[in-house]
Design a protein that fits this description.
Layout lengths: L2 H17 L11 H6 L2 H31 L1 H16 L1
Length: 87
């Protein structure tokens, strides 16, 4: 086994660790992202996406609870709407 074959797993691991493995201690970005300064852009974009996503999810949960607590009303409203469109 020559030296290049011996170092291949080491090189492969470090390439993966630096470029593909997200690290929780680095706010879930890679070492390469931090090294090249991309982490600030990535985290800013994530923050932009996160706020409306959380708002959307919260609204859906609220509407689902409302719908479940008023199943009879919601069902009768849906039935009445269906009848009004079929006429």
């Amino acid at each position: 086994m020559d030296e290049s074959q011996n170092s291949q797993p080491y090189v492969h691991y470090h390439s993966w660790n630096n470029n593909q493995c997200y690290h929780e201690s680095l706010s879930n970005v890679t070492h390469a992202d931090v090294y090249f300064g991309w982490d600030k852009v990535i985290l800013r974009e994530r923050k932009k996406i996160k706020k409306p996503t959380i708002h959307y999810a919260a609204c859906n949960i609220k509407n689902k609870r409302h719908y479940q607590s008023n199943k009879r009303t919601a069902a009768s409203c849906a039935y009445a709407a269906m009848l009004s469109h079929s006429v």
